[in-house]
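Amino Acid Chain and Its Fold in Token Form
===========================================
Structure side: the spatial fold of the chain, written down as a series of whole-number tokens.
Position: the record begins directly beneath this header, with no further notes in between.
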Amino acid sequence: MLAKLFIFYFRSMNKEKKSVGEMVLLFHRELKSRYPDTEIKAIIYCLFDSLMGWSRATVQLNKAKLLDKQNESYFQDALRRLQTGEPIQYIIGSTDFCGLILKVQPGVLIPRPETEELAILITRENQHIRNQQVSILDLGTGSGCLALAMKKAFPLADVTGIEKFPDALLIATQNALVNQLEVTFRKDDFLKPLSFEKHEIYDIIVSNPPYIPEHERANMSSHVVDYEPEHALFVPDNHPLLFFEAIAAIAKERLKPNGLLYVEIHEFHGEETVDLFRKEGFKTVELIRDGFGNNRFVKASTPFQKFRDRTRIPQDR
């Protein structure tokens, strides 16, 4: 009799717990009105990896396994937050970027795949300086993703990231410590004259500045506009190239002879951005497409006049 009661009690207790498979089905049922099926799957696998270190295959092999109360509570809380539109990266507190695990939280922009493409582009095109002591500047560093990717790709480089907002600057600094990469981060606003020392000139300048015109806000996903920092996304409708004008001015002053500038841009303002850099005297200005075929990056080299100024022989001065 006691044995039967124990078995009944054990089974009733287990019925209160959800299995891995039941939790997966719950996420699909509750999120199908907000996310496509493929994205729900990616979210689920991301949560299992973050909480339990499980791969996709492990999740599939353990569908019958019961979740303990602590893990089930974690998934239920994540589901509630996802239903409000909160990005999965903020829920788990991190994201992957070029093989780096970066901390992200509200107040810092979540790095995008396009920005990762930019880092890969810069790395691929500059392999010849991988083991040289070059200097790299990241304007508007945010989470530090580009600056840290540059330090990882060019280990001997002196990398500096500039950021206006203290919350993002703190996250960037923490990301450098966690990934054991030595990058200098400092607070400054590159829309205003920067506090550079005279000797601070760079081989490469990179930037992923705000470039989305304000009028596009209405057509964007709520998980972006309701949660991510608007100052890292939007520019005035009447001044869409605001940040690129500032970047051009800084690069003209701070790029070394034969230095390179790489920026991420708005796909519908590609030709305008190229024209801006050409008018500012930059050489070999290129418009580059991303993996989806959209105009997404501009590459330019040191302006003609700056090159002449830095190579002028003493008696010409």
About this structure: The radius of gyration is 24 Å. The mean pLDDT is 91. The longest helix spans residues 37-52. The first strand starts at residue 94 and ends at 97.
